[in-house]
Amino acid sequence: MLDTPNSVEARDTRYHLHSYSNPRRLAETGPLVIERGEGIYVFDTAGRRYLEGVSALWYASLGFSEARLVEAAHRQMQKLPCYHSFGHKVTENAVDLAEMLIAMAPVPMSKVYFCGSGSEGNDTALKALRYFNNALGRPAKKKVIARIRGYHGTTLATASLTGIPRNHTSFDLPMEGILHTDCPLYYRYGQPGESEGTFVDRIVGNLEEMILREGPETIAAFWAEPILGSGGVIVPPAGYYEKVQAVLRKYDILFVVDEVICGFGRLGQMFGSQAFDLNPDMIVIAKALSSGYQPIAALLVNEKVFAGLSAEAEKIGVFGHGFTYSAHPVPTAVAIETLKIYEERDIVGHVRNVAPRFQEGLRRFADNPFVGDVRGMGLIAGLELVKDKSTRENFPPEARAALELEMMCLDEGLVVRAIGDTVAISPPLIITEAQIDELLGCLQRGLARFTTAMR
Ligand code: PLP
Predict the structure, then answer these.
(1) What are the DSSP E strand ranges found in 242-357?
(2) Tell me: the pLDDT tens digits for 101-133?
(3) Where are the alpha helices (H) located in 136-195, listed in sequence order?
(4) What is the Cα 233 distance to its own chain's centre?
(5) Percent of the chain scored above 90 by pLDDT?
(6) Ligand 1 atom index nearest CA of 117
(7) Residue 174, preceding bond cis, omega within 30 degrees?
(8) How many CA atoms lie within 13 A of 45 on its CB side?
């Protein structure tokens, strides 16, 4: 197709810069053009069907053909296609959705701030922290601690929060005042002979040391995804968050929980905060908030944070922050409908019912000589590939092992996502047990080919 000048593939190469791509390599291989969706499947322009095993970008919880979401957008487009919530203006949708989110929040929250992406949500939270500490007369308390392999977005500030080298290198990041502490992945960072409990004590000890080194009076917040998604699907060990939260309380450090992937049922609870007993001061949500059908995200703040924000706005005269598309009536209409569907269909209950088949099925691949670790919870999982199981040595980067497996799975009709040495899987939440078996079958065939190729 690439050699047909007017093909989508050739024009894509000519005009379009993709996110997370290597443009020169892409110009040689050409893109995969996806044309339509049906349930948990998507179809390319040649009519080939793929089970979307990552819900596109972890977001299409209701699959790709939920008519009610399309109708909700259509109805709103006819009534009022665009408006905003700057100053004293608002649409009823924004109010309804804010009320719903406050009612369902995992811990008591006070206000919802709408934005268009997870990056905007995390960026707003970072700005809110500065505002809050200025209100409290603590101008030095502005640094934040995130984690190595955490992912919080790609704006200057949120790429800085993200703890992944490719998001920093040559972008001259991270920005000053954004620090990274240990990644809670025992399989990779546990030391020889170290128990999981000792690992937790060591990395939480390192967090406390960092706080003391920097000065607790300079640390505003700790940032965490309940399960780290784009860093390689990392499930922190038991006891980790309990100990982290004790440290945060000890030094008066706020907790910002990034629920962009974990929120809305992915882990078998409505929020990841419930799965891990987290007590956040701010929560960022996005993605499955609208099942990905419309770009919408939000920052939830508790009363303590809101009191600081409103006091500072009163002093200055205005809360000088706003995105053109904040609280846009179409995405909010779609999000309201999405939340109604989650409740009516008990999507969280469904995830709990089918998750064991998914997790147990995947754990059977631990027998494969190149699968070092299988981890996950609910309907999210990661398979970490290793060259040598006994030493846990990864494949050399030039082997691009996970990417090879991703392409082999694609050939078998399954979309998975290579992240470093890990292959991530997080199918739409509406997946049935029979479709889980289908997913596992495709993955098994992909892995069999991978095993033959790597031997
Ligand atoms: N936070 C998490 C946990 C994410 O996974 C992502 C995106 O994948 C983001 C934030 C950034 O969201 P966006 O890409 O919508 O800016």
Answers:
(1) 254-258, 282-285, 297-301
(2) 999 999 999 999 999 999 999 999 999 999 999
(3) 156-161, 186-189
(4) 10
(5) 99
(6) 15
(7) yes
(8) 7
- For residue 83, the tally of other CB atoms under 10 A from its CB is 15
- Compute the CA torsion angle 256, 261, 266, 267 (nearest 10 deg): -40
Pocket of ligand 1 (CB under 6 A): 57, 117-119, 122, 151-153, 225, 229-230, 258, 260-261, 286
CA of 314 to the centre of ligand 1 (A): 31
- State in Å: Cα 401 to ligand 1 middle: 24
Pocket test for ligand 1, best of 58, 126, 151 (most atoms within 8 A of CB): 151
Of 54, 264, 283, 287, best ligand 1 pocket probe by most atoms within 8 Å of the beta carbon: 287
Q: What is the pTM of this model?
A: 0.98
CB 326 within 8 A of CB 116: yes
CA–CA distances in Å: residue 138 to residues 133, 333, 443: 5, 39, 52
Cα separation, 97 vs 99, in Å, equals 5
Å from CA of 216 to ligand 1 middle: 28
Q: What is the pLDDT of residues 164-177, one digit of tens each?
A: 999 999 999 999 99
Q: How confident is the model at residue 196 (pLDDT cuts 50, 70, 90)?
A: very high
Rounded to whole angstroms, how far apart are CA atoms 13 and 445? 31
